[in-house]
Amino acid sequence: MEFPLHISLVSFLLLLSIVNPIFAAEVCKFPAIFNFGASNSDTGGLAASFGALSSPYGETYFHRPVGRFSDGRIILDFIAQSFGLPYVSAYLDSLGTNFSHGANFGTGGSTVKPPYSYPTSPTFNFSFSPFYLDVQYSQFKSFIPRTQFIRKQGGIFANLMPNEKYFSEALYTYDIGQNDLTAGFFGNMTAQQVNATIPDIIDNFSANIKKMYDLGARSFWIHNTGPIGCLPLFLANFPSAEKDEYGCAKEHNEVSQYLNYRLKETLAQLRKDLPDVAITYVDIYSVKFSLFQDPKKYGFEQPHVACCGNGGEYNYNVNALCGTTINTNGTKTIVGSCEKPSERIIWDGTHYTEAANKVIFDKIATGAFTDPPIPLNMTCHRSVTKTL
Ligand SMILES: *[C@@H]1O[C@H](CO)[C@@H](O)[C@H](O)[C@H]1NC(C)=O
Ligand SMILES: *[C@@H]1O[C@H](CO)[C@@H](O)[C@H](O)[C@H]1NC(C)=O
Ligand SMILES: *[C@@H]1O[C@H](CO)[C@@H](O)[C@H](O)[C@H]1NC(C)=O
Ligand SMILES: *[C@@H]1O[C@H](CO)[C@@H](O)[C@H](O)[C@H]1NC(C)=O
Ligand SMILES: *[C@@H]1O[C@H](CO)[C@@H](O)[C@H](O)[C@H]1NC(C)=O
Ligand SMILES: *[C@@H]1O[C@H](CO)[C@@H](O)[C@H](O)[C@H]1NC(C)=O
Ligand SMILES: *[C@@H]1O[C@H](CO)[C@@H](O)[C@H](O)[C@H]1NC(C)=O
């Protein structure tokens, strides 16, 4: 006997939803985002602490410097937008901030391991942020009771604080690790020496995730480290580095890849160890690298040349960084931006343009570059992210 069509369709869909629970799952509605990281995800923390960035930072979208290391929005902004959430306010910014839907603990120059554990650069002064990952964790840890106290107290600040239940429902985003590698390379370590520090960096990172879990965090979205060897910062400062067919420094990229390999493996283990957790590993490396492999495909040109900079093959000079004032033959000029930032991948030699960030966001949001392979808007589902 044959079943009527609608019954078999129903049972087929039912079967599908058992076999692949993502079809049954609803789109995630994260009420808040808490971010941890470095300059790729800073929305004003470093600028609030140590002085504002100068124009032309922010010129494309905000039309003024807003503490983001780009000409416009960064990936975290696109993530927030995609959930209909406001841009994430920097925790360290005491002016005009609104934490009702999250907070950003990431600051430019942050490392996973304490900055004092790295050698100082013999060639130039890199200032790594004092707000390394453990400090960001402590800030977050006290943020919970303090914001809840303020809410209970009432008054004008109460509504600027997150609802208590948001801490377990929020999306916890991470973008950190690149500066640990940068600190090693600029501290005159060989690629092998930097490589050898990676297990320690990953252990430290893993310990952080566990401690965040203990504070109630459940949904994690974790960016790996990009291809540092494609950045003007590295290309200009290590001119003798061997290049790959796309003009990126091979050895530097290999060290990023090893960090990413260890990170992915560690996150897979954490997914098994921690009950009721949703951990998504995001392969930012592959997405960023694809821009350098085929820039034209995305409307970009001069892939390794910074848009905002001052001369040289990569338009990058550590003594004349984007937005700084330089003295040429007695005339003061500001290091400014290229004609069309929308046609460039790299903004200031280290960070990406808004145009590149948008392409990167669109790709990572699909799930094609994540482990497990599920879209951003499904990453709250614990059973799915555990079993896929
Ligand atoms: C804080 O942000 C929320 C969400 O965007 C908004 O509804 C609220 O009005 C803001 N509060 C203030 C005081 O601006
Ligand atoms: C960097 O390291 C190399 C090899 O270890 C050494 O020869 C060189 O003197 C170092 N340079 C500085 C500036 O410390
Ligand atoms: C680093 O900064 C210190 C203090 O500002 C200065 O004395 C030193 O010469 C700088 N070193 C380099 C390599 O620029
Ligand atoms: C880094 O270390 C790993 C493990 O020892 C090794 O497989 C890899 O080739 C190393 N990479 C570099 C660039 O030294
Ligand atoms: C990370 O490493 C530092 C120094 O090595 C250590 O003090 C800290 O406790 C570690 N953090 C975690 C969360 O394990
Ligand atoms: C600065 O002066 C030198 C010598 O007169 C000249 O060669 C150079 O082109 C000038 N640089 C700029 C940027 O004007
Ligand atoms: C969820 O994300 C996927 C992949 O980016 C997208 O195709 C889909 O439209 C999104 N769903 C909703 C309801 O926003």
Automatic annotation (TrEMBL):
Spell out the protein name for this chain: Alpha-L-fucosidase
Does the keyword field hold Glycoprotein?
yes
Q: What is the lineage of its organism?
A: Eukaryota, Viridiplantae, Streptophyta, Embryophyta, Tracheophyta
- Pfam families to which the protein is assigned, alphabetical: Lipase_GDSL
Kindly indicate where the leader peptide sits in this chain: 1-24
GO molecular function, a single term? hydrolase activity, acting on ester bonds
Keywords for this protein: Glycoprotein, Hydrolase, Signal
Tell me its family.
Belongs to the 'GDSL' lipolytic enzyme family.
